[in-house]
């Protein structure tokens, strides 16, 4: 029995080693205009096609735009940045008569208490493919000045549309984000993805983004108008179903997550005392240095 | 001449002579031929056999036959328990156990989402509560079947000036005369809750009332069949819904908008506190906290998380609701009248009144008539035909 297991492990190791020893070669030359096959192009080659760049690939650095990045911001600055950023974004779309709705983690935050999740590094919104084209043709690279309601905060945002928006399928996976709403002070952004009916002939009524999130027309439309971070925003028709499909049931019931605990009285996600203590100690250590 | 055989045996020796003892003959006349019940070789000891014979002779034949029948019946009962009632009983026990355990992480602590132009809750004017000969008439999903509604009200003997009509939502769509039903309800001064179909129509109108920049969408001709753009900005393929929504008059839409998601009826003798909602409610959660989408769409609740859903895969919400109400002090118990689940049909429990009996598909239209004493009477009329077969509905379910 045991010998059998060893033998199997040995044999499979032998077979696997041949894969390591024979790297995949890239013989096929890419033709101009041809779709890039993700299996053929190497990581570096694919990276060349990427439009949006981040200072790093990890969870923290992956949420800044490389052009405006000056260093990781504190939780407080991120909260403040995101609060004004989404308000400015929703206001701009409203003023322009353009449709957009909140999605993914941002939608989950809305579901809990109409606010963003405090641990979320970025925010997500969606638009239809047609709106995306319209944005690309009319508002690409536009800058938007913002003043908060009380006049105390002034910000500037860049609406940057990915030139790869013509491609509505995943492609090489390097341009799945269609547009960004960037805070030019620190590089934090809102990810904007377009949804299109990618196969209207075989799969009518199924909307898809480039990262293969799929939605049925009847789950998305007609949209509902609600309040997010204090301003009017839209959410999909069957918001509960969309959230459960993406995050599973636990996302709607678990009250402890990412060092935060749901306060049932205040209806807020609060940092756990342990986390506050941990952060205080870390700050002290850095102060001593 | 004397000669040997080829094997060298003398010819005089026959084969039979080689058998040492030829006594193989057994006579059946001898006693030893037969088997005997010796002391240690028998099936039933003769002593016992005799005893059994003796007792069986003492018991009358009738009784013997009777006990044999009893034995067979017992066996049948045992088998049916094993393969049918046993598992059912175990399932029921399991269900009660699950309903009684509060999950560690349960649905219902979040802040209720707020939506524009949607009234979450209203309380019925006290003057409409049954008193004297004043009655309350609650009618399940009408779905545009105006003639049937009129016929049912006639059957009930509905008195406009005296009785009050409450509709459980989904009074429009699918059937032949949605506008007529809204006008009739308005004329009768009826109350109504917001069903998923009212919700869709109102949302669709809200969407098209917005200004849309340079894109085709809700403001384009609703009669158009094909899309010129490869992609659509708005409710792609929802032209039917939009056209349907626009067929209502401003006044009708205004009336529909006033329908709350939850209608608190108030206290009724014998029944207790009564509320009306289109689809259902989650137990142990204040009415103010109930998610409006779920109020208009739920069918079941997953007991592991207590998350409601439209699917039919989990425990029917009304089952859980009734179970939970019985645990509350009498004063806090709440009875719910609802529609939405035509498949389950008329479904009356102590604390839930399910009144959608599938009128629009040729089923029945149901009214629950409640008098001043809280006595409930079910009145039903047969609906004319399956209207959904004649014309495709603008929306399913």
Please give a structural write-up.
- Chain A: This is LicD/FKTN/FKRP nucleotidyltransferase domain-containing protein.
- Chain A: Keywords: Membrane, Signal, Transmembrane, Transmembrane helix.
- Chain A: One of its GO terms (biological process) is glycoprotein metabolic process.
- Chain A: It comes from Aaosphaeria arxii CBS 175.79.
- Chain A: Residues 1-21 form the signal peptide.
- The complex is a heterodimer of chains A (289) and B (397).
- Chain A has 289 residues and is of the alpha+beta class.
- Chain A has two domains: 45-253, Beta Polymerase, domain 2, CATH 3.30.460; 255-289.
- Chain A has eight helices and 13 strands.
- Chain A has helices at 2-21, 43-49, 75-96, 104-113, 129-138, 217-220, 239-247, 273-288, and strands at residues 101-102, 123-128, 142-147, 154-161, 179-183, 189-195, 206-208, 214-216, 224-228, 231-235, 256-257, 260-263, 268-271.
- In chain A, the strands form four sheets. A six-stranded mixed sheet of chain A has the order 1-2-6-5-4-3.
- In chain A, helix 4 crosses helix 7.
- Chain A is globular, with a radius of gyration of 22 Å.
- The termini of chain A are far apart.
- The model of chain A is unreliable at 18-36 (pLDDT under 50).
- Chain B has 397 residues and is of the alpha/beta class.
- Chain B has a domain at 121-208 and 238-390: 4-Layer Sandwich (Purple Acid Phosphatase, chain A, domain 2).
- Chain B is 31% helix and 15% strand.
- Chain B is built from ten helices and 14 strands.
- Chain B has helices at 46-58, 61-100, 146-156, 178-187, 196-208, 239-246, 250-257, 292-297, 317-325, 387-390, and strands spanning 121-123, 136-139, 164-167, 191-192, 262-268, 272-277, 300-302, 307-309, 315-316, 334-338, 347-348, 352-354, 364-370, 376-382.
- In chain B, strands 1-5-6-10-12-11 form a six-stranded mixed sheet. Chain B has a five-stranded mixed sheet with strand order 4-3-2-13-14, with helices on one face.
- In chain B, a hairpin with a 4-residue loop joins strand 7 (300-302) and strand 8 (307-309).
- In chain B, helix 5 (196-208) packs across helix 6.
- Chains A and B meet through helix 4, helix 5, strand 9 and helix 7 of A and helix 5 and helix 8 of B.
